[in-house]
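Hey,

The postdoc asked me to send both predictions to you directly instead of through the lab channel. I've kept everything plain text so nothing gets mangled by the mail client. Protein one:
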Amino acid sequence: MQRTRTVLVTGGAGGIGRGVAAAFSAAGDTVVIADRDAEGVTRTAKELGVHGLALDITDTAAITRELDALQAEFGPVEVLVNNAGLLTVHGALLDLPGSDLDTILRTNVVGTFLMTQHVARRMVDAGIAGVIVNMSSIGGRQPTPGMGGYESSKAAVDALTRWAAIELAAHNIRVNAVAPGPVLTEMLATGMPEGSPQRRAWEDRIPLKRLAAVDDVAAAAVFLAGESAAHITGTSLPVDGGQLLT
């Protein structure tokens, strides 16, 4: 039986982050969700029966302050899930403003780097054999027109995962990523309802003929953070119904 750990999930106010937090909580871990949406994170934490904090993952001072407070209350973070990211800014190569790309990279890459760095430092200082799970995307390996900014950021997350894994292995800290295809979050279901041409177009790209459920992604994160994955580090695990095969 796996012991209780302190798990921090960023971007936990909704969508995949909420599902990941619920899965770790169901496994018996002490879960803290962080999100820059202060109202949303407070509401979600109450609904899930976990702990919540408002945090902008691109703000170094805020990261330091909140991690210090979290550690004082719950002890060092033992599992970090870097789920927070920006998905809504898109544009074709010839049209995307440079400032928009900068915003995407600042959140998805720099934010993930900062959280990894600050949490890993505390793991090393405490002598913790911790785990970090990043949220990537198969888009980092399979391009979709108009989504290249986001997909480039996720390719960078995969590279960051390997970088962190090779350097932190000496401290017995494992670092992996989950790389979903399209995930049936509430937002996606609203924008692409069942039976819509857009939904069918995505499903036709997937050999298993369905979009991933949030629980599919959450299960992969829990697996990579658990004892069953004790000899896995530096990998990016697709949860895509076989889409990368096409």
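Protein two:
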Amino acid sequence: MAKNSLPLLSQLVRHQAFEDAYSAVADLLEEKDPRNGCIIPLLGPTRTGKTAVTRQLAEKAGPAASLVPMKAFVQASLPAQINAREIYATMLRAVGLKSRSGDSTSAIRDRLFRAIEQFGIRVIALDECNHMAERGSNLSARAAADHLKTVVDETGVSLVLSGLPRFQQIIDQNEQLRDRAAGTILFMPYDWQSDEERDAFVGAVDAVLHSLQSSGIEIEMNFEDLVRRLYGASGGRVPMMMRLMKLSVLQASSKPRLTSENFRRASCSMQQSGIPASLFFDNEEPDEVDLLRSFAAVMADELAPVSTGHLGLTKEA
């Protein structure tokens, strides 16, 4: 019974933060000058759902002019060890072509530009763009920005750059890239301190539980208590909440109910920004400070902007 519910937990939950990010990117692509490309940064901590946004946009895009079935909106993920050659090679793979080991950077770039024109590619989404700003990068911030700018200027393609907030420094350090980039779209975890965001997280949990109950699984936990524990364990990130739910269903095996023990055992296999998720499924109910610490840990670990109200929290005795 429980395992039959796993497909439900593999579906996309189109919660409010997801819808806001999706609409923001879609609107910018729709409203841009049709003669020119644009650069759209989509940034946020890990596991918030950024890749799901670009995947949904790609699915709804029109077909490319390729003999091989493909969309005019393509996706790729930048490797951890990034250099100029790999930027172009990654985009070339996104359009279904491969570079050869002996190809020079300029040869790969020219082949990419021809493919974009011939196939009618309109958008390339690059995941893990933050790798350009990390220590393993073999590019300066200015050089990385110049390559991105060149792709847009030379081909008219639009780039959706998805990754951790540290990529913002690449934009900030190059005035020409700043001029071509749209305002950064932040896809952040839900903030427990915000009534609106807390209600949105509650709504996402409620939708998932409703689907499970409709499939015959009972939840032997108080709803409000479970929401708080799920928030703490996920740091306000719906995909992480979904992962914990799926692991809990697996822990339940063939039993038609989820207990606190299922959630506790599932949470022991998860680690969230240095705070063990299992702490939120101990006997003691997490308090407000515990929940705020979880959110702040996610934001701080990813170098995301955090208001001072989320920092320096101390738990009263």
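Summary for protein two, as requested: Residues 3-11+190-306 form one domain.

Thanks,
C.
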